[in-house]
Amino acid sequence: MSSHHEKPAITNGALVPEVIPEDLAIEIRRLAHDLSNALEIIVQTSYLLSTTELKEPAATWLGMLESGVNKSLEINLALRQYIKSHTAR
Predict the structure, then answer these.
(1) pTM
(2) pLDDT tens string for the chain (89 positions)?
(3) How far apart are the first and last CA of the chain?
C-alpha cells in the first residue's frame, strides 16, 4: 500500500501541516466509523461464505469478494490514519 505524505502549508515563511477543521473532522470521523461497521458486515459474510463448499463459478466469485474485502479494509485503515493525523485531537 502506498503511503501519502501530508502537504504542509506555508504560513509566514514556516511550514504548517494541514489540519481538517473540527466541524468537518467530526463528520468525517462519523462517516469513517459507519464505513467500518458496514465493512465488518461484509468481512463476516465473506468469512461465513468461505466456510461453505461452493461450486464454480461461486468459488471464483468468493475469491473476488475476498480480494475486494481486503482492499476495502486497507483503504479504510488509510482513511482513518489520515483523519487521525490531520485533526487537532
Answers:
(1) 0.69
(2) 444 444 555 556 655 568 889 899 899 999 999 999 999 999 999 999 999 999 999 999 999 999 999 999 999 999 989 888 988 86
(3) 26
